[in-house]
Amino acid sequence: MTDAALSAPLSSRRATIGRLLSDPATVAGLVLCSVVVAGALLAPWLSPRDPLEQNIIDRLTGPGSEYLLGTDQFGRDVLSRLLWGARISLMVSFLSISAALVIGGAIGMISGYIGGRFDLVTMQVMDVLLSFPSLVLGMIMVALLGSSITNLIIAIALTAIAPFARIARAPVLVIKERAFIEAGRALGFSHLRILLVHVLPNIVTDLLVMGTLWMATAVRTEASLSFIGLGVKPPTSTWGGMMRDGFENILDSPWLCIWPGLAILVLVLGLNLVGDGLCDVTDPKATQ
Amino acid sequence: MSASETLLDVHDLAKHFTLTKGFPRPVTTTVRAVDGVSFAVQRGEAFGLVGESGCGKSTAARAVLGLIPPDAGRVRFAGTDVTDAKGSTLQRLRRRMQIVFQDPYSSLNPRRTIGQALTEPLGVHGLARGRAARERAIALLEEVGLPPSAYDRHPHEFSGGQRQRIGIARALSVEPELIVADEPVSALDVSVQAQVLLLLKDLQARRGLTFVLVSHDLGVIRWFCARVAVMYLGRIVEDGPVSRVFGTPRHPYTRMLRDASPIPDPGIRSQLPRIVGEIPSAADPPAGCHFHPRCPRASDICRTVYPQWRADGEGGVACHHPED
């Protein structure tokens, strides 16, 4: 392919990024997300202490110069645990939503493309999955599989597959009726080629926008499951786990719940703002 | 090229759509979109299929190409059965017959450049790759009257007429022998219609293409086609050479269509004909001859028995009381 052929989609992509950055809410979201991602990536250097190191003498110390955000009931540094916990929260939400996006997207796309009875049955299975609140489904999964980071990722991914399948299927129903799909069949293209080359690129933005919004949900689900003790096992620090531990001392040491709560708020708010921004920018009605 | 070689032979083609609706007692309705259609197209010929909206002409065209499986009947293309073709046989047939669509706005993938749209079929059929494919694509663009710079652009940068040219170029990319054009100019402005029709006619002459042109526009059929079949509610009611069918129509429906299509000649101005009734639903066609509720010549037999096909030399008619 020639340079010019590649530059056309690139320049439109650049225009999309430009529109994205002209919206102050989206920029704020990007900043919030960047702060969390930077904190997670730089945790080994930013953390003042080992997140697992216990200083029993200094337990439940309030925020101050010695411990910037205070210590928990084992005398562990809250700031360090928060930074290391960001890694778990981001990793769990990113991996689970990526898996759900790929699996759910494929199910929805194929189901919508094939149509008929197969589509009906598949989507009814998805509706059954959808009818469970994601926290309840996550609890069932973790109870069945046992609690570990991998199982947590699997559990959250399972809760998010159905919505991605729905989101992927709807535009496929429209696209598959368009003449260029029939043209592809008349030209002897395989179904796989039609799906990957002609259907997928037309739904991928929808999926990515959903992915951003669902990552926020995954952060909350992970925190909730960790909070009720079904998430990552102690002593590994996660935001939900920190809130659960802090909950026991919430009257004397409220900061133990406030800091992880704020961290969750920042990340969820940031992801939602970015997701909304992407949604507006990729809406064809807004671009033309 | 002998003029008598039959390239496409459609025999008793039928396509029914069923729709089940309602709860608790679902009612199944069967729409007989195409209900026993037969026609033959000679190599190098332009054959027209004409009829009102909903008469099944587009469905018939798609069944001919094997894009939808027919419920009954046979389609033979140069002696090969299209209806049963699978795998590599079907793949080879796909190369030899192509389709041009009505809506130029939905016939191109908005995310692919024109170059990608034109080279993709070349790659799939192993005709050309890389530089050779690019050169062939640019030659195709020139053949349909577009500049080589179109190669790197996206469909949204083109007008309806230009997109239709690109759709035609894509159909030509695999070097087909037959092109089924489904209302190729109906979605275009009148001024552009003429250009696209001229292009198709030019291509037919230059490449020796065979055309099946589906249209509701008698003017287009009259100008483009040598022979025509008139469809009404899923069946062919009359066929033959265009000049004969539209000059001295034998089926009352053909006459009605002909009289409803104005001829730009003040000398033969006459009263606009009265068009009786609407086209009935193909889900519930009238008993007997489907046309009898609208027909001025209908008699008792028309209300009970569907008329048999009467062949007459170069064509035929399905009517109990054909005009002479």
Write structural notes for this entry.
- The complex is a heterodimer of chains A (288) and B (324).
- Helix content of chain A is 76%, strand content 0%.
- By secondary structure, chain A is an all-alpha fold.
- Chain A has one domain: MetI-like (MetI-like fold).
- By secondary structure, chain B is of the alpha/beta class.
- Chain B contains nine helices and twelve strands.
- Chain B has helices at residues 57-64, 87-96, 114-124, 130-143, 160-173, 190-207, 218-224, 242-247, 252-260; strands at residues 6-21, 27-42, 46-50, 72-77, 80-81, 97-100, 178-182, 210-215, 227-232, 235-241, 310-312, 315-317.
- In chain B, β1 and β2 form a beta hairpin.
- The model of chain B has no long low-confidence stretch (mean pLDDT 88).
- Chains A and B meet through α1, α8 and α9 of A and α2, β6, α3 and α5 of B.
Name the descriptors:
heterodimer; A: 288 residues; mainly alpha; MetI-like fold; 12 helices; elongated; disordered N terminus; B: 324 residues; alpha/beta; Rossmann fold; eight-stranded mixed β-sheet; four-stranded antiparallel β-sheet; 9 helices; 24% strand
In short:
The complex is a heterodimer of chains A (288) and B (324). Chain A is mainly alpha-helical and 288 residues long. Chain A has helices at 3-21, 24-41, 43-46, 78-114, 116-131, 134-145, 149-175, 179-186, 191-227, 239-247, 255-282, 284-287.
